[in-house]
């Protein structure tokens, strides 16, 4: 999560700028859409990703830090081609 934070923040800044430009258009529908999306992306990038997500991950503890569908890698695993230290027939 820490490695992608800069990329996500930069993308959010670009999206906010583009959507805010929609607010300068003369058509009311596009103006509302642009301002609404700019506010939504700004809230997502600041409040959700800055406060809510880290708090939720901290509350979940170890359950929130892994990748779904992948088993946890043991601290002292066996060599490749083994399961729990026993050889696996290929």
Give a description of the structure.
It is a single chain. The protein has helices at 5-22, 28-60, and strands spanning 82-83, 86-87. The protein is mostly helical. The protein has a two-stranded antiparallel sheet with strand order 1-2. The longest helix has 33 residues, at 28-60. The mean pLDDT is 78.
Summed up:
With 90 residues, the chain is mainly α.
Throw out a few tags for this protein.
2 helices, 2 strands, mainly alpha, two-stranded antiparallel ribbon, 90 residues
User: What is the terminal separation in angstroms?
Assistant: 36 Å
Beta strand %: under 5%
Low-confidence stretches: none
Q: Describe the biggest sheet?
A: 2 strands, antiparallel
Mean pLDDT: 78
The secondary-structure element order is HHEE
Helical/strand content category = mainly alpha
Strand order of the largest sheet: 1-2
Number of strands: 2
Alpha carbon gyration radius: 22 Å
Helix content: 55-70%
Count of individual helical segments: 2
> What's the overall geometry?
elongated
Secondary structure layout plus pairing:
Layout: H1 5-22, H2 28-60, E1 82-83, E2 86-87
Antiparallel strand pairs: 1-2
Helix pairs in contact: 1-2
